[in-house]
Amino acid sequence: MHLNSTLILNLSAVCAVLINFLLIVLILKKSPKSLGSYKFLMLYINLFEFSYAILYFAEKPDLFTKKSAFFLIVNWKESIFPATMSCLMDLLFVGFFGTSMSILALHFIYRFFSVTNSRYLKIFDSWLIIPIFTVPLINGVLYMITGGIILSADAETDRFMRENYLKVIKNQTNLEDLYYMGPFFWPKLENSITETYFSWKGAEGSLIVMGSIGLSSSIMIFFGIKGYISMNNLLAITSNSEQFQNIQKQLFQALCIQTIIPVVLMHIPASAIYITIFFEKSSVIVGETLSLTIAMYPAMNPLPTIYIVQSYRKAVKDYFISIKNTLLKKPTVIPVSHTVQVIPVSSIFTTTS
């Protein structure tokens, strides 16, 4: 990977750790009571993204794509961890990607329940929230099994790596120094230079991964559209204040932003890789692009929450004002509001993420 790309990956990972840590503190200390059970969902999401960012910073795997192959690679020789630990972290990275797909779907389901004030929203206020939170983790384990067993290295992939990856990196790395996994659709026939055949092994693993991505995308689209329609209907018939309507519009804007971020940074690049490798049209730049977008995702995803939730935005603003005044040796003045309008939970349902 080029120096500039490595620098961007490191900066993204550091920013992701810091931003998610900040949001976790804000959720714990500055969450308005109107958030209700959504506070726990936000905390769950950001603890996951915080852990993901630390994992990525500690052991950044190399994503290599060319022709009909897509491999996630860890170099034991260059890792700061023992070989067994590097292997496990490579599997965890795959599992975290699968978990993120399910978390996105869960997020949209909750948002729809909150907008429509569904009776199912009570599930998130009971002990049932525990098994619900385990569903994304189960999907992550499924990804780990798929990558570590179905899409594990074999003689065909070893041959491809020797002919392609080792020539690209141009250093003293040997194939024995690498642990890798991934789909390979069109390997060459044994003792052949040009003839290829279709690998059902690669297809089976890819169907599991693409099926998960497709299911996550379908849930996001379905509940996103239903949520948009429900919100418009609510605003059309509501007799609540203008402040309530503004809150609902802000929530919809936040939902749009939080749809765009994972779709652009996760769904589209991952889908593009699987489509291009199936048609033997993938290239190294495709894998490098996915590496960058995956690294950017945990850093960018918390930003809409920090901006949209007023108490979080105000806390961050006040903190920077305090730093500015300290540097300029000015007293910090905190404005006091004499009029407080309380909006019931049943009116705002949630405040966003």
UniProtKB/TrEMBL annotation:
Kindly indicate where the leader peptide sits in this chain: none
Family matches, as SUPFAM superfamilies: Family A G protein-coupled receptor-like
Molecular function terms in GO for this entry?
G protein-coupled olfactory receptor activity
The cross-references to Pfam families, in alphabetical order and at most eight, read: 7TM_GPCR_Str
Which residue windows are transmembrane per the record? 6-28, 40-58, 80-106, 127-151, 207-229, 250-277, 289-309
GO CC annotations on file: plasma membrane
Q: Name one GO biological process term.
A: olfactory behavior
Query: Which keywords annotate this record?
Result: Membrane, Receptor, Transmembrane, Transmembrane helix
Question: Any idea what this protein is called?
Answer: Seven TM Receptor
Organism the protein comes from: Caenorhabditis elegans
Lineage, broadest ranks: Eukaryota, Metazoa, Ecdysozoa, Nematoda, Chromadorea
